[in-house]
Amino acid sequence: MSTRTGEAHAPQTDALRTGRTDVLVLGGAGVDTIIHVPELPLPYADSYMIDSGIRTRAGQTGDFVALGLAALGLRIHHLDLLGDDPEGDLVRALHREHGIGLTALPQPAGTRRAVNLVGPDGRRLSLYDTSRARPGDRFPEETLGALATAARHVHVTITQPCAEALPVLTATGVPLSTDLHDWDGENPYHEPFAYAADVVFLSAAALADPERTMRRIVERGRARTVVATAGPDGAYLLADGELTRVPAETPPAPVVDSNGAGDAFAAAFLYGRLAGEPPETCARYGAIAGAYACTVPASRADAMDRDRLLRTAAGPRR
């Protein structure tokens, strides 16, 4: 069976054959082209010589969350639209390599792609190709409902067309999480995700008052747990009405790229949540995995495994 048809291939059908997966990841599949630049912002010039090379690899937000969860030993299924193109083949190969179930529905507009400019300090600037989507794109309700009800949890990325999937997902009663990334607290696009999820992740980078935004999410939506990551300043955790600060963890190696750190945080937090750990422990797991992700070069797709996560968490804070 061709992997470009959008039909399930092993282990894609495992979720439906066995009746259970741990997490369904919805959306966020694609490829990134990585370019290391001498500084950010990049001053205007007619040309730059890139000695480190320009590399394209599979891995956007949904792929990285799925990869992080799978590395922690959970059974993962990923649902998204992919093109019949070389970029789609890279995404399919990534999932096969890591044993992640993938249902790839046809996307005639092509596989989602982006260019990441990465500075010497690991910060990045992402340029997203919005032409790789169509206004009428939808996930078939039967497929979406079957995969969601086969899962213990659903993580919803904010890529199109996931917003249209939210009513179907909430009707299943399966717990939901989402990552709003660098939401400014005002953009209405993010609100359906913020108010439909039980667990909400976001970055504090664009928030003037993280606590106010976090409490508004709880007041207006379903969430009882909201996490705002703040890079080297750690994170804010709002759980059961109480706001606490989560210290940052010291990366185990030099920081080379921040790409995927938020996805790694979310994956490790969800691992802890599904294991029945309290929110504070889940947030510590997230901080550990996020710090590790910052040491992984942008050209690689890698994630912390369960043994290393638990061993690090059992030791003193670094």
From TrEMBL:
SUPFAM superfamilies referenced in this protein's UniProt entry, alphabetically: Ribokinase-like
Coiled-coil annotated residue ranges, if any: none
Keyword Secreted: no
A molecular function (GO) term: kinase activity
Pfam families recorded: PfkB
InterPro entries: Carboh/pur_kinase_PfkB_CS, PfkB_dom, Ribokinase-like
CDD domains: adenosine_kinase
Sequence ranges assigned to domain Carbohydrate kinase PfkB in this UniProt record: 202-301
Record bears the keyword DNA-binding: no
Keywords: Kinase, Transferase
Protein name from the UniProt record: Adenosine kinase
Organism name: Streptomyces broussonetiae
